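Async update (no meeting this week)

Hi team, since we skipped the sync, here's where things stand on the single-chain job. The sequence we agreed to prioritize is pasted below, unchanged from the tracker. I ran it this morning and attached the output directly underneath so nobody has to dig for it. Comments welcome in thread, and please keep replies under the output.
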Amino acid sequence: MPEVEDNRSFSTAGDSSELSSENTLFGKYEVGKLLGCGAFAKVYHARNVRTGQSVAIKAVSKQKVLKGGFVEHVKREIAIMRRLRHPNIVKLLEVLATKTKVYFVMEFAKGGELFTRIARGRFSEDLSLRYFQQLIAAVGYCHSRGVFHRDLKPENLLLDESYNLKVTDFGLSAVKEQIRPDGLLHTLCGTPAYVAPEILAKKGYDGAKVDVWSCGIILYVLHAGYLPFNDPNLMAMYHRIYKGEFRFPKWTSPDLRRFICRLLDPNPDTRITVDEIIIDPWFKKGYKEIKFHEEDFDFKEESQGKKCLNAFDIISFSSGFDLSGLFDEAEPSVRKELFISEERPEKIIERIEEEVRRSENMKVKKKRENGIRLEGHNGNFILAVDIHPLTEKLVMVEAWRRDFNAGTSDGIWEEAAGKMFPAVADSTYRLR
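Output:
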């Protein structure tokens, strides 16, 4: 998830049964109106008390998660959202926890659900194309990170204040690690009207190809104003999906007909791919590739590096209070080390840069006065270092490594954590 900013907080008091507009969560977020409800979560609008920024807070009940058997779903959703940082994907800002709830603090999409806009009437072909281009940009990015959404539909597409599309709800998503030896996924999931025919066949499926099918359904709905496959008899609807039997409205242009037919090809082997989509003549009309600077490890807030950590902050860094122990124990691609040093932050950064210059495996991606980001030369890992003042003479050095290639050697991490940081100063101590 891009990684979650490591602003973990924990409550020592008992939870209130529900969030309300009278609550201030952890003294940081003033909670407002309820935006929506799910099986084991509620989503609220909230405001960051210090910055005034609007956020959405998803409050997940641990009790309901355990009773419903959704622990792995929540773990996976956290792990996946920590991988993703894209302009057309809702950003996970931080995760907070109490004894009874886990709170996802997310980017607030002021424009609401795309579904609400479609319910008012179908879109023009140009507007349908605009949103479809943004959808494919997000989906293609997910696939490049080994993430398959598996529940794409208008209800899971939000709009920001400028009415740009934002993909959300990764609760049913899968990652490459779930692919079986046959190279396919096998979990049956999705929303009936958007499910791909190969999922109905129960013989395994390619996660990227089922996402493309769902994107095809969404494009049809945007343009037509209704579903291509819709029947009160579920088995009859599944039969039509399996056969790929649907009709176009009379206002559909020939180019769009051809394009949608390639998306809704019932044969996954011949269905259009994301790479083919982006070079299709209909899709390319007015298309501008989205360029952005992805930060898989965002720097902490500017003020955080300028104040000394208190006892509560230090405790929150310890392994016993690490949120990953609650839900996210299944992401071995992330490693972390903590050190204490008497060296000045700028000197630490300088010495890290010296080590990088000697290394053939790393390069500096970005730096600030209280942190630095390193990247593998082949892009297979990110190493993030943040420096937190403890006292006037001591700092805490927090180092993260995030692998994007399961085969990345631990030797690279040992080079950084075992050689680079103890070499920073004679008075450097590893905490864990």
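Quick observations from my side:
The longest helix spans residues 125-144.
Residues 85 and 349 are 25 Å apart (CA to CA).
Reply here if anything looks off.
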